[in-house]
Amino acid sequence: MNKLVSSFTAAPLPQGAVARVSLAAPVARLVLRARGDLAALNAALGVTLPSVVGHRAGAGEIEVLCLGPDEWMLHLPPGQVGAVSASCAALMGSHPHSLVDVSGREVTLEIDGPRAAELLTLGCARDVEAIPVGQGRRTAFDNVTVILWRDGPAAFRLDVWNSFAPHVAGLLETGCRELAAEAA
Amino acid sequence: MKSCRVPGRGRVDASRPVTFTFDGRRYGGVAGDTVASALLANGVHLMGRSFKYHRPRGPVSAGSEEPNALVGTRRGPGRFEPNTRATVQEIWDGLEVTSQNRFPSLSFDLGAVNDAGYMLFSAGFYYKTFMWPRGFWDKVYEPFIRRAAGLGASPTEEDPDSYASRNLHCDVLIVGAGPAGLAAARAAAVEGLRVVLVDENAEAGGTLLSEPHLQIDGRPVWDWLASELSVLKALGVRIMTRTTAIGYYHQNMVGLVEKLTDHLPALPADTPRERLWRVRAGWVVLAQGAIEKPLVFNGNDRPGVMLAGAAQTYLNRYGVRVGDRPVVLTSHDSAWFAAFDLQGAGARVQAIVDTRPSVREDLLHEARALGIPVKLGHTATASSGRLRVKSLRVNPVQGGRVGAPVTIACDAVLMSGGWTPSLHLFSHTQGKLAWDEEQTTFLPAETREDCVIAGAGRGLWGVQAALEDGAARGRGVAAALGKDSTARAPRVQGDRTGTGITQIELPTDLNAGRAKAFVDYQNDVTAKDLRLAVREGMHSIEHVKRYTTNGMATDQGKLSNINGLNIAADALGRPQPQVGLTTFRPPYTPTTFGALANYHRGDHFELTRKTPIDAWAEAQGAAFEPVGQWRRAWYFPRPGEDMEAAVRRECAAVRGSVGIFDASTLGKIEVVGPDAVTFMERMYTNPWAKLGVGRCRYGLLLGDDGFIRDDGVIGRLAPDRFHVTTTTGGAARVLNMMEDYLQTEWPDLNVWLTSTTEQWSTVALNGPNAAKLLAPLVEGVDLTEEAFPHMSCAECTVAGLPARLFRVSFTGEIGFEVNVPSPMAMQLWERLWQEGQRYGITAYGTETMHVLRAEKGYIIVGQDTDGTVTPYDAGMGWAVGKSKPDFVGKRGLARPDLVAKNRRHLVGLLTQDGSRLEEGAQIVFDPDQPIPMTMVGHVTSSYHSEAVGQPIALALVEGGQDRMGQTVHIPMPDRTIAATITGTVFVDPENTRLKI
Amino acid sequence: MLLIHCPYCDETLPEVEFTYAGQAHVVRAADPASQSDEEWENFLYIRSNPKGPHYERWRHLHGCGRFFNAVRDTISDRFLTTYKAGAPRPELSSLLGDRT
Questions:
Q1: Could you mention a single GO BP entry for this protein (chain A) (predicted)?
Q2: What is residue B701's DSSP assignment?
Q3: Which residue of A116, B488, B777, B906 pairs with A154 in a disulfide if CB–CB is 3.0 to 4.6 A?
């Protein structure tokens, strides 16, 4: 009954021919902070935490992005949160860390289409094209902190806190229309 | 209507006529025309009036440097823009163009009376004329200046257009698509380099568009240009036309403004009018070319007097002959070619008047062959003609003596004082300039940016030289980026190069003091003004500039700066490099506010954060107030209620039964790790070590200076896990401050911070029935005084939702804060709303929250504190863990000024006449003292209190805690209010109402 | 707009991802109680304002979140170097040597 539903409900998101934006299905999100030898945490999570900022790893249905030298974002099915939390909690004494559930904090927008990368240039000052496929970055989109996952040459995900989502989606929508008009 | 179109000339499309209006009159042009070229084709030179003297003016140039031909352009309602350069605006069917600075009409203008008063309006006239009598300023001078000031008329309607912006990253940005830029692009366009070539014109080509006689690699230049552009596109070069580089910022960030629709007859859907590009380039090649200098002589501003190069462009690019009987006046070879081109297009050039005593033989030969009279060693001393030049008065100059005048009848004067490199963008980089004595001009020298200059922009003249320099610079840039380029410049035939001399104002036999020899056309600055400024003591070029306004108009001194410098240097008797050039600043050409604001207008003007409950509140008709980036429900008026009535009702409901409040905006930080308690001990004033799991405590956060920064309730969920709340506005700041201490002062601590502000939405229930309402919905905790006393917290289930439940009160009533994951907040809210109906549950907003907390003396950080208030000042010494060895602010609290007597203390105030004080009002002890009075504090919070039965206030008052019961005075504009100092708790000081 | 190299991300990125965080190497004493009023005042308020190289702190706020140190030339607005918090303060001579 307590299904995670998004608190962000935008008007229908734009479906342009050259760039599309859609709201991703809810996912559980955990912020992990730790340092030092991560072997025990890797074992508990069943995935090797990448050590380079921006790099990703995945195992089964868990996906991890390294956000900072001691910070990771984990995406996983909501049903697995309990087990992952419990196995990490068991390590607290021997391997100090912080695991915080932020599943309700943010939503994910999926952005794809041939000009998806260009759409992101409306708000991203950093070179979006320079982010390798299969990596991700925390960055700013129109001054809003976001996490940008690059899944393919023209496929991105953008994690954004609930209250910033309408602002970000609004600009993306404008951009989709602009790009569609340009392509026409 | 007279047609000055030359069949077969130009790049315009004669088969596509275009009709537009100028001052209501219809004119015909053709596709490819600008407003200026189309009007000139109709024989119209008069396009505007000057700013100060309202002198009739026509276009002097054919490009973005135009100072004179400024017009208003309109496209239906709301779409009006003043100060558009007619030389740049392309025409389309239905375009409405109006002239500016004239009343009642362009050809008859009352403001031209200023022209007769020329001797009054000399340099610095603003500073001199409006000095006295003093009383005249408000009533006479300022209204006069305000009416007269400003170019054109501001649009009055909201702009219906949209504007856009993007970021662009490239390896090489080339500014200017003339021969140098094209060659640089070709050389840099090697595999793997992202090359962007921009040009402000409607089409790429630069000077090549005005020199159709050229052959490049054996092909007619325009054929070569077309194929070169397609080659560049095929090589992946991004070519952007109608795109102006407006500014060059740090580390190769260049701002571009692309005009997308101003040239289109119909506006396409979803297309912005302009787009601001923020380009970050590895290397920048500036290939902006050079700008022709006007000659400075008496009457050099009449319509029909224009730059020779502009006349050449009008002929060769637009197919327009700007005069049938032109005179060419020059000090440079280049204008001779303009004379030859016009003669070849059916004009009868009346004379080539050159200030130089001798010129190249081949030029003389060609002039003779074409039958053009030549006058060498001559000056021009006057022109005539009211709305169009009719004659030019020229005199021979021999041995410095000006001889007898001859008047040459003409319908145009084509002048050239030589060329000056376009240094604007280079100047933006703080680049150093070097004086070139031979060319009498500044050339770009050094810049710290990764930037090179190519072609005429660094003093190289001629198309061949520009192509070769462009290619070399392009190769160099490619090499700097680790790429090998072998591109070579093509060969040019028919290249016209030349030299010239630099003139200050031309010598005259007339009274130089009465000469109207303009240096800055747009600001009506004459050579006389510059000399006067120097005589009056302006010895720095920056002072001369400001005193005369030379170079300060919207054209940024493109035509006037170098002439102004040469004249000022002459007046000062110092060489130019010692006088120096004034600084060019962005933007290169006038830029719309729309482009700069781009997406940030209307709904997208500013980010507005909303909670999950916001939509419910809106549906209930709530009024909102902004708090930080959030919008929060302020109060919930019922029909017929004003704010005061609504707040009174909401307050009574909370004190009488139960109120529900959206506290989701509170900042939340999860502090986790074995050293969590150590970290909390160090950050907050309070002690935390002994706080049990399941308990919470009010925490006070100071800066290391000892002043209050933030506060909030903090719950201990586990030995190593705290749920910290912050103020709404302080959330990001507090997290930043905590991270700062953790990362840089205590990196050894094993504790981490995670923002959970938006993970948890917070619903507060307050009132005597709060526990009764909530208890049946809670699983896992008994809401009894024994099991869950005040200041308890627990992880439990509320209404079937996973929750963090806090028993806290910001109202003095029994209070709970229920935190649930944000996506579930509305579910919780609606359930509580539904279950609460039996208790008459009332939604309340931030105003009621403020009143209720003030009645209890609870502070709002930032309202009752202002960054200079200590915990002791605020009466919260109890929150300071005095036995702790250290916490942020502990040492600060011991500073001499912080322990001094008579600091301002937070106290309560009750007015003696029952009136309500104004927040921010100043307080004095003695109302009878002389003004200026000694102010001893101010009112920080003031509300009507239903519970107290009169208004209450909180105030910071000097030594207030030792003045209980004393009277202070609050002087207001109409009266002085007396108030009694009280404690800060107005309601239930024993806290009996907190008990379940 | 500046370009800043984040020593933690090892990327050179636009300024909008960063926030300025004041002068670097201003150390909070391990035992503040031992500090004289003057020493504490220096710690709180007294800052250098050089024309030229300036040791300062930045935070990669919209990125890895780390505070780091930098040497920026206040004349040219160029970063001479950036380095991790806790790393030793680089000698100016070595930085300026690189520029010529």
A1: sarcosine catabolic process
A2: E
A3: A116
The answer for B217, left when phi > 0, alpha when psi is -120 to 50, beta otherwise, is left
Which chains share 3+ C-beta pairs under 8 angstroms with A? B, C
Complex prediction ipTM: 0.97
What does the radius of gyration of chain C's CA atoms come to, in whole angstroms?
Answer: 15
- Chain C interface mutation, best of B449, B739, B891, B897, highest count of C Cβ atoms under 10 Å: B891
The answer to whether the CB of A149 falls within 8 A of the CB of A157 is yes
pLDDT > 50? residue A2? no
Number of Cβ within 10 Å of residue B592's Cβ equals 18
Distance (Å, whole) CA C52 – CA C97: 14
- Best of A127, A139, A147 to substitute, by most chain C Cβ atoms within 10 angstroms, is A139
Q: Report whether the peptide linkage leading into residue B265 is cis, meaning its omega lies within 30 degrees of zero.
A: no
In whole angstroms, give the CA distance from residue A45 to residue B457: 62
In the CATH hierarchy, which fold is given to the domain comprising C3-99?
A: Folate-binding fold (3.30.2270)
C37: part of which helix (H) or strand (E)?
Answer: helix C37-45
Q: Whose CA is closest to B182, among B608, B597, B468?
A: B468
Q: Which domain holds residue B71?
A: 13-116
Residue B612 reports pLDDT greater than 70: yes
CB spacing of C61 vs B736 below 8 angstroms: yes
Q: pLDDT tens digits for chain C (100 residues)?
A: 899 999 999 999 999 999 999 999 999 999 999 999 999 999 999 999 999 999 999 999 999 999 999 999 999 899 999 999 999 999 988 887 654 4
Here the CATH number for the domain that contains residue A132 is 3.30.1360.120
| Stretch B421-425: mean pLDDT | 94
Distance, CA of B404 to CA of B978 (rounded, Å): 89
CA angle B567/B572/B575 to nearest 5° reads 75
Closest CA to B79 of B163, B23, B150: B163
Q: Beta B290-292 vs B195-198: how paired, if at all?
A: unpaired
pTM, two decimal places: 0.94
Q: Are residues A52 and A77 in the same domain?
A: yes
> Distance between CA atoms of C32 and B215, rounded to whole angstroms?
80
Residue B486: partners with Cβ closer than 8 Å, 6 or more residues away: B475
Residues of A in contact with B801 (CB under 8 A): 2
CB atoms within 10 A of CB B961: 16
Tens-digit pLDDT profile for residues A75-98: 999 999 999 999 999 999 999 999
Question: Does position A4 have pLDDT exceeding 90, yes or no?
Answer: no
Name all chains with 3 or more CB-CB pairs below 8 Å to chain B. A, C
